[in-house]
């Protein structure tokens, strides 16, 4: 007779006596009618100061989330969440400590897209909120419920809340808003796709119909309205709020004062006249398209450059030529500024890229995707250590790269549907997989890197590599146009890719690149080029801080009939 060792016997007995708790989700009849496909999230939070859906983050205080996809839901059914699905920050539900929590069920709705490339995929669609899963109009959820969690007792939650539609801003004297149907994007996605823009027009715009202006394109995350412009002084009754990011009090008043100061400059008689736009890149993957053509996202680069921008220039009297367009932005917007300058070198006359997302994939934050096998772990002959993901200016690490990706794995699964940072990079840069979703650069769970995908990234989106590969063709069109700024203690190690890119740019000849690369001493994300003022001020001044350098470009490149003092072209 064969006998089990006693410890195996005890494990088997333990498993039999601790069945998985049932988690039953009831959807109210009214909200269940248009529900078909989506992702069900179960969220735990340790306090009631913030709803669980707003508390999932890279920080150590993150709420707990467990996620599960579902398809073909039938109205009136209840949903059962399998607690064995992947969780973050705690992977296995059995390891969630016993105690008091506020729990919430949340459903991210998926829509079906029949794309022109022949693939049918299911994705959450932006509802003009910037693809923010926890507040997307139409997504549904339960009210937070206080429980005592013991890992054994089941949960019954009722989803009876729905996120309301976005209230879109109204036009003012200086700020106009447009929605523009892109034929290119609509064809790709198999449905109407719109781009939007908030447009800041110069003083006396309506009084001078014969004036035409340069165009400044401020790239960045999905803006609800034009930011940093205010026609009235700061509110007198503002509370003395605290900004944890900048460790100062009264930041709301600082923001309002800066916005009001910009307005006063904007209307002053000697201030240059130009148009500023902030673009809304609505898409299913993120709050921004990255403004380039992508197999998974679609032809956003062409749509913005050849459809949207000419439409804006025609409607708001832009000059409409490459020498009169400039691009700038920080972080995502910094990458976009450099990318569109490189991809469309004659359509823009200068880029100002602050704290750009990785522009050299040998330093894809802390990973060299071409030479390393694993994104999450550094492996030696006798030990393995995790790769860091986020730090402060002192170098103190607050998140590991694996955990940042595990958050997305719990929120969105394996098909780049989290709406977060690593998934959008993957969606933009990767080829389409056989299932129609982005082909992963690395296994989302193990971190093992796919070198075939890495090669695709290099040839199509590694901006340093592309410039170096094609300098003999691009160099003359990029000369004097590239300006890059980054803190040397960027929280996400983005300065590493800037160092490598600078090495190439400084080596260029015939022509020499003729721009600038500057670093902020001990500056975190997102330093944008001013060594004398703190980041919490300069981040509010994007629309004015590069004007001297833009003026130098215009003096060199604008035609003789361009008024170089007021930046006006008479027609």
How are the SSEs ordered, and which strands pair?
Layout: H1 6-17, E1 23-27, H2 29-32, E2 37-45, E3 64-70, E4 78-80, E5 87-88, E6 99-114, E7 120-123, E8 140-141, E9 145-149, E10 155-159, E11 161-162, E12 175-181, H3 183-189, E13 194-200, E14 211-212, E15 215-219, E16 242-243, E17 248-249, H4 251-267, E18 275-280, E19 293-294, E20 298-299, H5 300-316, E21 325-330, H6 332-343, E22 351-354, E23 377-379, E24 384-386, E25 388-391, E26 397-400, H7 401-412, H8 421-429, H9 451-461, H10 463-469, H11 471-478, E27 482-487, H12 495-507, E28 516-520, H13 535-538, H14 542-545, H15 547-557, E29 562-563, E30 568-570
Parallel strand pairs: 1-10, 15-18, 15-21, 21-22, 22-27, 27-28
Antiparallel strand pairs: 1-4, 2-3, 2-6, 3-5, 6-7, 6-8, 6-9, 8-11, 12-13, 13-18, 14-30, 16-17, 19-20, 23-24, 25-26, 29-30
Describe this structure in words.
This protein has 571 residues and is an alpha+beta fold. The protein folds into 3 domains: 6-162, no CATH class; 175-360 and 463-570, Alpha/Beta hydrolase fold, catalytic domain (Rossmann fold, 3-Layer(aba) Sandwich); 365-459, no CATH class. Helix 10 (463-469) packs across helix 11. The termini are far apart. 44% of the residues are buried.
Helix content: 25-40%
What is the CATH class designation of the largest domain?
Answer: Alpha Beta
User: Can you tell me the CATH superfamily of the largest domain?
Assistant: Alpha/Beta hydrolase fold, catalytic domain
Overall shape: globular
Largest sheet: 8 strands, antiparallel
InterPro entries: AB_hydrolase_fold, Mycobacterial_A85_antigen
Organism: Aquiflexum balticum DSM 16537
Protein name: Esterase
């Amino acid at each position: 007779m064969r006998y089990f060792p006693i410890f195996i016997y005890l494990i088997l007995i333990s498993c039999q006596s601790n069945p998985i708790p049932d988690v039953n989700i009831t959807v109210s009849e009214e909200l269940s009618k248009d529900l078909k496909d989506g992702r069900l999230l179960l969220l735990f939070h340790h306090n009631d100061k913030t709803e669980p859906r707003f508390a999932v983050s890279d920080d150590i205080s993150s709420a707990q989330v467990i996620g599960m996809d579902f398809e073909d839901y039938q109205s009136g059914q209840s949903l059962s969440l399998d607690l064995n699905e992947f969780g973050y920050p705690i992977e296995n539900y059995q390891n969630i400590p016993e105690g008091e929590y506020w729990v919430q069920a949340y459903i991210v709705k998926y829509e079906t897209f029949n794309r022109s490339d022949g693939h049918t995929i299911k994705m959450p669609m932006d509802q003009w909120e910037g693809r923010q899963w926890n507040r997307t109009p139409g997504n549904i959820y339960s009210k937070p419920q206080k429980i005592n969690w013991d890992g054994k007792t089941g949960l019954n939650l009722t989803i009876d809340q729905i996120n309301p539609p976005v209230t879109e801003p109204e036009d003012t004297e200086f700020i106009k808003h447009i929605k523009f149907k892109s034929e290119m994007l609509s064809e790709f996605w198999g449905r109407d796709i719109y781009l939007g823009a908030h447009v800041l027009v110069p003083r006396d715009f309506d009084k001078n119909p014969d004036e035409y202006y340069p165009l400044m394109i401020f790239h960045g995350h999905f803006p609800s309205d034009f930011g940093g412009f205010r026609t009235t002084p700061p509110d007198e009754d503002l509370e003395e709020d605290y900004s944890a990011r900048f460790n100062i009090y009264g930041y709301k008043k600082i923001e309002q004062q800066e916005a009001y100061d910009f307005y006063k400059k904007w209307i002053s008689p000697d201030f240059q006249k130009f148009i500023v736009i902030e673009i809304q890149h609505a898409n299913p993957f993120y709050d921004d398209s990255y403004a380039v053509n992508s197999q998974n996202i679609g032809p956003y680069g062409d749509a913005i450059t050849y459809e949207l921008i000419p439409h804006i220039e025609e409607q708001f009297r832009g000059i409409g030529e490459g020498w009169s367009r400039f691009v700038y932005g920080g972080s995502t917007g910094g990458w976009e500024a450099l990318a569109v300058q490189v991809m469309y070198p004659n359509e823009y006359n200068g880029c100002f890229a602050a704290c750009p997302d990785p522009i050299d994939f040998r330093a894809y934050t802390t990973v060299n995707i071409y030479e390393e096998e694993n994104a999450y772990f550094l492996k030696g002959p006798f030990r393995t250590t995790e790769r860091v993901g986020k730090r402060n200016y002192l170098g103190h690490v607050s998140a590991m790269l694996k955990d940042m990706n595990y958050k997305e794995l719990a929120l969105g699964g394996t098909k780049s549907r989290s709406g977060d940072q690593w998934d959008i990079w993957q969606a933009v840069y990767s080829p389409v997989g056989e299932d129609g979703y982005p082909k992963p650069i690395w296994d989302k769970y193990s971190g093992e890197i796919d070198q075939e995908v890495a090669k695709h990234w290099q040839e199509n989106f590694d901006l340093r590599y592309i410039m170096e590969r094609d300098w003999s063709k691009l160099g003359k069109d990029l000369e004097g146009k590239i300006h890059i700024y980054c803190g040397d203690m960027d929280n996400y190690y983005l300065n590493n890719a800037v160092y490598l890119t600078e090495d190439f740019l400084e080596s260029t000849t015939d022509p020499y690149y003729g721009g600038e690369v500057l670093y902020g001493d001990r500056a975190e994300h997102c330093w944008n080029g001013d060594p004398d003022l703190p980041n919490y001020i300069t981040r509010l001044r994007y629309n004015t801080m590069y004007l001297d350098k833009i003026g130098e470009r215009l003096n060199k490149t604008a035609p003789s009939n361009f008024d170089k003092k007021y930046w006006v072209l008479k027609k």
